From TrEMBL:
Signal peptide: none
PANTHER family with a match to the protein in the record: 4,5-DOPA DIOXYGENASE EXTRADIOL-LIKE PROTEIN, AROMATIC RING-OPENING DIOXYGENASE FAMILY PROTEIN (AFU_ORTHOLOGUE AFUA_7G00640)
Keywords: Dioxygenase, Metal-binding, Oxidoreductase, Zinc
Family: Belongs to the DODA-type extradiol aromatic ring-opening dioxygenase family.
Protein name listed in UniProt: Extradiol ring-cleavage dioxygenase, class III enzyme, subunit B
Ranges of residues in domain Extradiol ring-cleavage dioxygenase class III enzyme subunit B: 9-254
Lineage: Eukaryota, Fungi, Dikarya, Ascomycota, Pezizomycotina
Cofactor: Zn(2+)
Organism from which the protein derives: Phyllosticta citribraziliensis
Length: 297
């Protein structure tokens, strides 16, 4: 295992809006990760979601000091309306500078309102209050290598106590979801039939990539997933697969070699949407424990 002082990196599949209001093992894991982050005194969260992209060759950083929350369906307003967001403008400015130094056309966005891809996860991770958080946009061309490079440019923040999170989806094709149990019965977890083969197969491919690759190989493997024969069936659009690139960039350096991804929770929704939750790396004070567990296994 690498002997470094870096924070772990999470790839979370946020799923449907109902993941905010309903109980699930994924939500339990998000809470566990939030508790651990607070126990380790993180300086803040740096997050790329799946619902915000910048045009041309640009990447944006959320710099709105008082963002609103876009409303969500199938969730009682009491679950999110009063939750106070805490944009971290100082770290946002720092991210802009780091991205520019890496060659990106990075700009602050002072009017962006936050969307459920990010605040859904923050509420479940940190129900007692939002830590200082910086949101990084995607780029609308959805070039996987571009998004890996964003993660690589911000990776050094892990050494300073920031928690880097990508919020997207392992299998996320809205055109293949089965909605009637949610619409008729408010049941997002119903599985009236098994998932279709493409959903099952691609979900396995994503797990295989995380489990069996680390360091630069992880970066190559996640970008290669976009050439998987069932990629387009599993991802109807590219937006929910960019955060996985960001995560691989942030946790796929030579120094990360040996830190393999772990599938820590998984929740199927709407028959064909697979919300897999992965973590790469461990907290510095847990490295010895992890090595001991692995050698005993
Ligand atoms: Fe989403």
């Amino acid at each position: 295992m690498p002997a470094n002082n870096l924070t772990p990196v999470h790839f979370f599949s946020h799923g449907s809006t109902m993941m905010l209001g309903e109980e699930s093992t994924s939500a339990d894991y998000w809470k566990k990760c939030g508790d651990e982050a607070l126990a380790h005194g993180i300086k803040g969260v740096v997050m790329m979601g799946a619902h915000w992209d910048a045009d041309a060759d640009r990447v944006e950083v959320a710099m709105n000091p008082t963002p609103n929350k876009s409303p969500v369906a199938y969730v009682h307003p009491s679950k999110y309306v009063d939750y106070v967001l805490q944009p971290d403008l100082a770290t946002g400015e720092r991210c802009i500078q780091l991205l520019r130094a890496a060659g990106f056309a990075a700009e602050g966005n002072t009017t962006f309102d936050w969307i459920h891809d990010t605040y859904l996860v923050l509420i479940r991770m940190f129900p007692g209050g939002c830590p200082p958080t910086t949101l990084i946009s995607m780029n609308a061309r959805f070039d996987p290598h571009y998004h890996v490079k964003i993660g690589a440019a911000l990776r050094q923040l892990r050494a300073e106590g920031y928690l880097l999170i990508g919020s997207g989806g392992a299998v996320h094709n809205l055109y293949r979801n089965v909605y009637w149990p949610m619409v008729r019965h408010a049941d997002n977890f119903a599985q009236p039939t098994p998932p279709e083969p493409a959903s099952l197969d691609f979900r396995q491919a994503v797990e295989d990539v995380f489990r069996n690759n680390s360091g630069p190989e992880l970066r190559r493997a996640v970008t290669r997933l976009m050439k998987h024969p069932q990629y387009r069936e599993a991802q109807g659009t590219d937006d929910h697969f960019m955060a996985i690139m960001f995560v691989a960039g942030a946790a796929g350096d030579e120094e990360d070699r040996g830190d393999f991804g772990r599938l820590e929770a998984e929740t199927w929704e709407l028959t064909n949407m697979c919300n897999s939750q992965f973590t790469i790396g461990v907290w510095p004070d847990q490295r010895g424990q992890t090595a001991a567990v692995e050698s005993a296994a």
